[in-house]
C-alpha cells in the first residue's frame, strides 16, 4: 500500500485569490465563512481581493493559509484521499493538526490569528530579521551564528529546509553580521528575507508565553493521524505533547529536512502539498528525488492528484 503524507505550507505562500477555484462548492465555501465569523473580520475578502501587503501581515496571513489548507484537506478527504502522516512548515503545523483531528478548524483559525498578533508584538518592526544561507552545512553555520551571538547580537538557525538551504533568524545586526561571516567562511549566498519578524528565534520567547496561555484553554485532542512535528522531527500523537511543542516551536528551529527524512523512513513515498504554492514540494525533491510530490492548490491540481492517487 502506498503511504501518503499531507504537508502544509507556512507564511510566504499566501497569494491573492488562493482557494478561489474551490468556492463553487458549498462545503468548501463554508470554510471562508467560518473563518470570517471566528475572527470577526472579513478575511475572505482580503484573501480574494487583497491588497497583498495586508494579506501578508502575519496575523492575516496565518489564518488565511490555515483556512485554504483546511478547505482543500476536506475536499481530498471527501474524494477518498486520506494521509498516513501529516506535517506542516511552521504555521503549516496547525493545518496538519486540524487534518489530524487535534484541533477543530474554527478553534485553530482563532489560535493562529492570536499567534500572529503575539509574534507581531514580540519584536518591534525593523529590529529583527531573517536570511536564507545557501551552500553551507548546519554545523558550520551554527558555529557562525554562535560567534556572532556572542559578539554582535542574537542570531540562530531557524529553518533547516533541505541540504544547502538554512534560514537564520535574530536581531537585525546579528543576522547581517552572520550573513557576512557565513559568506567569508564559504557559503554560496546569503539572501535577506522579506518577513515581519525574527521567527523561530529566542526573540520570540515573549510571544510563546502568550501562546501557552491560549493553548492551555484550547483542549487539544489526541491525533487520529500521526503528526511529524517541527521541533522533534518525530511522529507524535498525544495532545499534551502538541501543546508543549507548539509553544517551543515559536523559538526553536523548524527541522524540515529531518521531518521529511523521518516520514520517508516511516514508508511515505507520496507527499501531497495541501495549500497555496509549491515551495514544500521543491524542498522535498531536494531532500529525496525518488519520492513523488503532488502540490494541490487549485481545482485543476486537485483533480490531477485525485486521479493519480486513485490509480
List descriptors:
four-stranded parallel beta sheet; four-stranded antiparallel beta sheet; 13 helices; 311 residues; alpha/beta
Task: Briefly summarize what is shown.
The chain has helices spanning 26-39, 43-49, 52-55, 58-78, 92-99, 105-122, 138-151, 172-184, 205-216, 239-249, 256-265, 279-287, 299-309; strands at residues 3-8, 85-88, 128-134, 155-162, 165-171, 189-192, 227-228, 235-236, 268-274, 292-296.
Report on this model:
With about 300 residues, the protein is of the alpha/beta class. It has 13 helices and 10 strands. The protein has helices at about 25-40, 45-50, 50-55, 60-80, 90-100, 105-120, 140-150, 170-185, 205-215, 240-250, 255-265, 280-285, 300-310; strands spanning about 5-10, 85-90, 130-135, 155-160, 165-170, 190, 225-230, 235, 270-275, 290-295. The strands form 3 sheets. A 4-stranded parallel beta sheet has the order 2-1-9-10, with helices on both faces. The protein is globular. It starts with a strand and ends with a helix.
Amino acid at each position: 500500500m502506498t503511504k501518503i503524507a499531507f504537508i502544509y505550507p507556512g507564511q510566504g505562500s499566501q497569494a491573492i485569490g488562493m482557494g478561489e477555484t474551490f468556492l463553487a462548492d458549498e462545503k468548501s465555501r463554508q470554510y471562508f465563512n467560518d473563518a470570517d465569523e471566528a475572527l470577526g473580520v472579513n478575511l475572505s475578502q482580503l484573501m480574494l481581493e487583497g491588497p497583498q501587503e495586508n494579506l501578508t501581515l502575519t496575523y492575516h496571513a496565518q489564518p488565511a493559509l490555515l483556512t485554504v489548507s483546511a478547505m482543500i484537506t476536506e475536499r481530498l478527504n471527501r474524494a477518498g484521499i486520506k494521509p498516513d502522516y501529516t506535517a506542516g512548515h511552521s504555521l503549516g503545523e496547525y493545518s496538519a493538526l486540524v487534518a489530524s483531528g487535534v484541533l477543530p478548524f474554527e478553534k485553530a483559525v482563532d489560535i493562529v490569528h492570536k499567534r500572529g498578533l503575539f509574534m507581531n508584538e514580540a519584536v518591534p518592526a525593523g529590529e529583527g530579521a531573517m536570511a536564507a544561507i545557501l551552500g553551507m552545512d548546519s554545523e558550520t553555520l551554527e558555529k557562525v551564528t554562535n560567534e556572532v551571538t556572542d559578539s554582535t547580537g542574537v542570531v540562530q538557525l531557524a529553518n533547516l529546509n533541505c541540504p544547502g538551504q538554512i534560514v537564520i533568524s535574530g536581531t537585525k545586526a546579528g543576522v547581517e553580521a552572520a550573513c557576512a561571516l557565513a559568506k567569508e567562511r564559504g557559503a554560496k549566498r546569503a539572501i535577506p528575507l522579506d518577513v515581519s519578524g525574527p521567527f523561530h528565534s529566542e526573540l520570540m520567547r515573549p510571544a510563546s508565553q502568550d501562546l501557552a496561555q491560549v493553548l492551555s484553554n484550547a483542549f487539544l485532542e489526541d491525533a487520529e493521524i500521526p503528526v511529524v512535528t517541527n521541533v522533534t522531527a518525530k511522529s507524535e500523537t498525544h495532545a499534551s505533547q502538541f501543546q508543549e511543542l507548539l509553544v517551543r516551536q515559536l523559538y526553536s528551529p523548524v527541522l524540515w529536512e529531518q521531518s521529511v527524512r523521518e516520514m520517508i523512513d516511516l514508508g511515505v513515498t507520496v507527499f501531497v502539498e495541501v495549500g497555496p504554492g509549491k515551495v514544500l514540494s521543491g524542498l522535498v525533491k531536494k531532500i529525496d528525488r525518488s519520492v513523488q510530490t503532488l502540490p494541490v492548490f487549485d481545482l485543476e491540481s486537485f483533480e490531477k492528484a485525485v486521479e493519480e492517487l486513485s490509480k
